[in-house]
Every structure is written in structure tokens, then in C-alpha cells.
């Protein structure tokens, strides 16, 4: 569904993404892991149009989407969430969801003045849809609470809910578990799996919680220093020498040699 070809993103002399190439299969939940500074979020930002690439290409279902702005990718069904939730904090959770659908009649001055019946019916349908989303995510009890007053985990669920208010096809989730307690993290995981299985969403997930990654993601891609190091199941990734080197600074082979030297 998504193919990244030799992607580079440079900030002056710093190569945040340095020739990354990878593929995201339609209908998958792909995990993206790597040490801090590996280039994961920058890669997301380039794919999602937040940042222009220095070079390389991003292909979505055969079409070159390299450098398209976020609103154009939104129309194609490519969305991303952020590590820090971006809710409208003075609006209710329901209102946050109702803001999402594009081209609402009430946004048009003519319709707002002269087609009020049409606007009202459309808003009622959007409200019904928002309530269904809140119920799906098991947060319908906070529908009328101000979004700025809910917990961090609930905000992450609300962000996930925003993707359900439009025709999302592939969703990039950046550290969806950051600052979230274990109970809500399990709720988020359940919602992602259900959206994948029941509605055909494709997900790409950046996360440092390996239990979370192992529960929902297959395959898993590991990045380090702006490059893709390895791809496979989480068990295969954990056993990969290059991955161990990137995370720990020394691989298993070096560890074994040192242990053998210590016994001599």
C-alpha cells in the first residue's frame, strides 16, 4: 500500500532519515521501533507531508505522493496522529470528533443562511456518527466533557476516534502509548486491532513498549541512524545482531567474546 524508496531528510549536516526504504502492506499493523534519534518520527512527518523530503519517493498504491501536503493526503485517506495529542481543549469530546468531516454544509455561508434544514440534518448525522465512535472506543461516558480535561490516554483514544470520522485507509500512530496507563493502553490496542480486522484499516505504529508492539504488530521494522536495520516478527527483530548493536551499543557476539576472555 505504501512504498518508501531511498528517502532522505537532512537538517543542515544532520541526516535524520538517511536512505530509508520500506514497504507497508495493505491491511497490516506494522510496528516501527528503534532507539531515540533513529529517525522514526521524521520518517512519519515526511510520509505524512508535514516535512518535505530532501530526496527519495513515497508511493501509495502506485501513485507518487512525495511532498503532498497533509490536507491532500487526508483526502486520500492517509492520516497521522502525534505523540502529544492535539485536541481542541475547550470543546467537548463529541465536538472534537464532529469537527473532522470535511466539506460540511454549515461551513458554507450560503448554506448556513438559506439551507438551515440541510445543515441541521447533516449535523445530526455527524453527531450520531461521533457518538458511535465514542461508544466503539468505550469513552462515550466522556462525550460531553471538555477535551482538555480528560486523561492522556483518553486523549489518545480521542485522536484515534478522529481517524474514524473520515474515510481513513492508512493511519500512522506516533507513540500512541506514551504517558498512558496500562488499562487504557490495552483499550487502545483493542481498538486498533478491531479497526484493522473489522474496518480494514492499515496501521503503522511507532512505540517503545515492546509488549504493546508484540501484541498487535506484525511485521516490525527497526530503524537506527536514519536507516532501516531489519524487518520481521518481533522475535526475529529481538534476535537480530544489528538491532542489538543499535540498542545496546554492543552485540551478542562481542558479549560472548568478552565473557570467554573473562573466563581465561
UniProtKB/TrEMBL annotation:
Transmembrane segments: none annotated. Residues 2-250 form the ABC transporter domain. One of its GO terms (cellular component) is plasma membrane. The keyword Transport applies. Keywords: ATP-binding, Nucleotide-binding, Transport. The keyword Transport applies. GO terms for molecular function: ATP binding; ATP hydrolysis activity. SMART domains: AAA. This is ABC transporter ATP-binding protein. It comes from Rhabdonatronobacter sediminivivens.
